[in-house]
Structure formats: structure tokens, C-alpha cells
Amino acid sequence: MEQNQQWSSKIGFILASAGSAIGLGAIWKLPYVTGTSGGGAFILLFVLFSLLIGFPLLLAEFVIGRKTQKDAIAAYKHLAPNTKWYYIGYLGVFTCFVLLSFYSVIGGWIVQYIFYSVTGQVGTGNADYEALFNHAVSNPALAIGGQALFLIVTAFVVGKGIQAGIEKASKFMMPALFVLFIVLIVRSLTLDNAMEGVSFFLMPDFSKLNSESILFALGQSFFLLSVGVSVMVTYSSYLKRDDNIIQPSISIVGMNLFISIFAGLAIFPAVFSLGFEPTAGPGLLFIVLPSVFEQMVFGQFFLLMFLVLFLFATLTSAFSLLEIVVAVGSKNNNNRNRQAWIMGIFVFILGVPSALSFGIWSDVSIFGKSIFDAADYLVSNILLPLGAFLISIFVSYKLKKDILKSELIRGTKVNFLFEAWYFLLRYIIPLVIIIVFLDVTDII
Ligand code: PHE
């Protein structure tokens, strides 16, 4: 599909792609995977992967989108006519579809927690947050209801094509989230024994790493930056041909890494101080943060504010996930609304087993994992690395070097940066992905 849409301003593009990138990955997933995968060494590796692998890939997707001005599938067809490379686009669409199916489960938990917060069940002292969390995720009606609500909002916004308007709100929401995190960090760091948490989070102990945690760190960096699925191809296709892409990618990576570190610094000191387990898993944030807010003046109000901002960040990522599925399916804007609802319903159906896997279906296991974990594993540790691998190969082997050069650095003299980017894409990234991948399949 030719893009007839365009961002009304440069900031619109930055906000939308930052909105896609910043979400559960930084705020919910990273802290819990860090907790289960060994702490500081994992974070160090994850930051390295994000800078040396995720970041160059983000730029690569931006180059494809801005150059072709086409959606995730048409873009590859345009650049490599009569080849099968456009399957990268289909792989991305499929990945987003599965990703949204379990993403919405967590979105549903946030919806539930907003409700609990309004009704005073969290944030008002003496609640047993572990019990509350278990109730929230294991009760089928609540889990599925929350997930449905989350998807209804997503389908509504994407169907109407009004994400851009909503993303404008993130101009205020994201800074507010930053500020709230700083308040949280201050509170968390002034708890007793806070330093134990800080050192767990930031002091690398490499003996805690194994092949699997290295793969998790890699998958996490792709998940965090929304790369490997051509979402960023689609978003940058709405740019004008001469818009800058380097600046936005630096801001996106920078902001996202900041939020990631903030989330960890808010959570881990409290984990150790208040006697929780860092290995608590997906419930970590939902159990620990309410307890921190409880230790604050106006805690209940701040908690509600936090949950609303958190939901907002999660929704803007969900919009991008559904958008790419809808953009491919609807050839013109007429049936967009219908398409959004139909796809939303399919995503919901696919997601129900994930939602139930924290409760009545917790015994069902796929390759030794719960349904939710299996879906997440498939996406984060197989499909995203595969998509990323193919994109790095496509850009660096299939596209001409001088074209890439003129696309990326536009006549400026920063040649060595281009060379470094090209080298990473052509040699390092594919190699690292293969090695990390094979290493794990070896031990399974
Ligand atoms: N980056 C998003 C997050 O961290 C998730 C996402 C991945 C969104 C891939 C779009 C595509 O929450």
C-alpha cells in the first residue's frame, strides 16, 4: 500500500515510535526477567545488546521505511522485487499478532489494578499484595475481562486511526512517568537495606549467566526497542523523505534505556528491603510497587497516577502492534475499522489461553512452560531474533552500500559511524544472533 498518510510533524513520529518502544518491555518485563536471570550481569549484557544490536537494527528499519514509504510487506517487495524477502514482513505481522495476544493479558492486569486502586484495595495499607495479585491473575473472569477491555480500547483507537492524536498526549504522559519514577526511586532508595537491591541490580556477577539468560538478554533488547518485526518500518514510512532518522533513534533508545534503569532502581531496593523475592516472576512489579507507594505520603494517589501512566505507555505499544496487522490487511482506509475489530477479536481468542495460564490452566504445559511463558518464549527468544537476523542480512547484503550511505549520513562527514553501523549489521549482528541461538539449542 502506498502511504497517503504522513506525520504532521517530526515530533509526531518520534512520539509514536517512542510510544511503541516504551511499554511493558522496560517497565514490567525487564525487572522480572532481571530478577529471574541473575541481576547485574544480565542488565549489563542487555544494555550492550540494546546499544550494539538493537540500536543499529532500529536505524536499519527506519532506513527501509523512510526510503520506500511503504508498509511492512510492500517495502521489501519494492526493494527486492521478485524475491521472497517480503516474507520478513509477514513474519513481523505474525509475530506482532502473537505478541499482542499475551501483551494484552498484562494490559488487563493493569486495568484491574486501576480498578483496585480506585476502590482502595491497593495502596491503602495492610493489603497482602501477593494474595491480591494471585487473585487478579487466576480468576478467569477478571483476567479475561481485563484483557478484553484492554483490547477493546486498542481496537477502537486503531480502527478509528486516531493513534496519532493519542500519541500527542504522550508528550505530557511520558515526562510525567519519568518524574513519578524519580519519586519512586527516591522512596525506594531510602528504605532500609536499599543498597542490597541496588547491588543486585547493578553489580554484575557473571557466574549467574548461562546460555539461556544470554538469549533472554538478546530477546529482551529486541522486545524493548520493537525491532525485528518491521513495526518501525511501518512507522518510518510515514516520514518525509528528508526527515532525520538518526536523532529520533537516539532519543528512542536513550529514553527507553533510562526508563528501564529507572524501573529497576524503583523495584529492586524495595524487593530486598521489604522481604520479597527477586525471582517472583511476572508478578514482581504488581506485588512490589504497591508496597512502595504505601510507604509514601499521598501513596494511594501516586499509585493511581502511576497505573494510569503505565497503562498509557502499554496502550501506545499495543496500538503499534495492532496497527501493523491492520495496515497490511486493509488496502485502503475504508475497511480499516472493520479490520481492526476482526483482528482484535482474533488476538483476543489467541490470548485467552495465555490469560488462563495463570489460573485454571496453569497445569497445561508446552515444552515444559506455561502457555503464557511459551508464547512469550516463542516471540521474544525465537521470532524476534529471527526477524532481526533477516533484517540485518537484508539491509547489509541485499541493499547497495552507497545507497545506504546516502540514506543514512546524507553527505555529512561522519563516515566512520556509517562504517561501524554497516559492519555491525553485516557481520557482528548476524553472527551474535546465530551464536547465542545455537548455544541454547545445544543445551535443550
Ligand atoms: N517495545 C514494546 C515494549 O517494550 C513491545 C513491542 C515489541 C511493541 C515489538 C511493538 C513491537 O513494551
TrEMBL record:
PROSITE patterns named in the record: NA_NEUROTRAN_SYMP_3
Topology class, membrane: Multi-pass membrane protein
Transmembrane regions listed in the UniProt entry: 12-30, 42-64, 85-111, 141-162, 174-194, 214-238, 250-276, 296-328, 340-362, 382-399, 420-438
InterPro entries: Na/ntran_symport, SNS_sf, YocR/YhdH-like
Highest taxon in the source lineage: Bacteria
Entries under SUPFAM superfamilies matching the protein: SNF-like
GO cellular component, one term: membrane
Subcellular location: Membrane
Classification via Pfam families: SNF
CDD domains, A to Z: SLC6sbd_Tyt1-Like (cd10336)
Main location: membrane
Keywords linked to the UniProt accession: Membrane, Transmembrane, Transmembrane helix, Transport
The protein's name: Sodium-dependent transporter
Organism: Lysinibacillus antri
Classification lineage: Bacteria, Bacillati, Bacillota, Bacilli, Bacillales
